[in-house]
Structures are given as structure tokens and as C-alpha cells.
Task: inverse folding
């Protein structure tokens, strides 16, 4: 099935790319989650709008990405969440939680889709997360999760 990506999908492409994928993958995963739309001749016009919006949000140069990386890595990001007696969280820390905590700590706006969690954060303590700022630049952010 031919689709137009509306968001960046790891291993598949960036927003605005027209790609060919298996029907089930598109129907059961990409389309319901809003990561893609079906390709049509009319939808081809939307591709340019999606690409323009991506260019505005995207970090243009490696130098700019390195500058943001130094700002982010210098931050101490703290989150207060509800947890049980054993240090297990009620739920988990999401990418959106981390993005808002980076902003609250005085850092730049970080797109939640660019935050990579190795595994879900479900315990109190110190954790490392990766932020993809540019295809060649990745920042490591230390996140301190404490009980509220």
C-alpha cells in the first residue's frame, strides 16, 4: 500500500515521505495511530505542506544541534510522580512527561517524538534517555524520578 507519512517513523522515513508498505502494517498500525495517510492524487498536494511544516520544526544544522545538545546535557531534569512503597511507579514516565520536564528545567522545547526511552521508566531513581536532535547528533539527558 502506498502511504504518505505524517510523522517520523523509525526505519521507514520522515514526515512528508511517500513510501510503500505492507497493507496490514499500514491498516493496523500506521493509519490508526495517525502516523500516515493513504496516498491519493489529492493527497500528493498535502506532501508539500507536510514537508514545509517539517522544515520549520527541524533543527537545520549540526552546529545548531550541538548547541542545543550542550544546553540539554547541562540540565538536571527532575520529575515527581506517584509511587508505591517499593519504589514502583503507578504507571510509567512518558516521553511527553520528559519533554515538559526539560522545558520546566529551563531547557529548549523538545519534540516528544524525538525522545527515545530504552525501556519504560517504571521505578524511582536516576535514568538516562536519548534525544535525537539531528540525524548525526544525539543528546543524553539524565532524569531523576522522585516520589510526589
Result:
Amino acid at each position: 500500500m502506498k502511504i504518505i507519512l505524517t510523522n517520523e517513523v523509525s526505519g521507514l522515513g520522515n514526515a512528508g515521505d511517500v513510501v510503500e508498505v505492507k497493507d496490514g502494517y499500514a491498516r493496523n498500525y500506521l493509519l490508526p495511530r495517525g502516523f500516515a495517510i493513504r496516498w491519493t492524487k489529492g493527497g500528493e498536494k498535502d506532501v508539500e505542506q507536510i514537508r514545509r511544516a517539517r522544515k520549520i520544526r527541524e533543527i537545520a544544522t549540526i552546529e545548531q544541534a550541538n548547541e542545543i545538545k550542550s544546553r540539554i546535557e547541562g540540565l538536571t531534569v527532575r520529575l515527581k510522580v506517584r509511587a508505591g512503597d517499593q519504589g514502583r511507579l503507578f504507571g510509567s514516565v512518558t516521553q511527553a512527561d520528559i519533554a515538559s520536564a526539560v522545558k520546566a528545567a529551563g531547557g529548549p522545547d523538545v519534540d516528544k517524538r524525538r525522545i527515545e526511552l530504552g525501556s519504560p521508566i517504571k521505578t524511582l531513581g536516576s535514568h538516562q534517555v536519548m534525544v535525537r536532535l539531528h540525524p548525526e547528533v544525539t543528546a543524553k539527558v539524565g532524569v531523576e524520578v522522585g516520589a510526589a
Summary: The longest helix spans residues 43-57. The longest strand covers residues 137-147. The beta strands are 2-5, 18-20, 36-38, 77-81, 88-93, 115-116, 121-123, 125-134, 137-147. The mean pLDDT is 86.
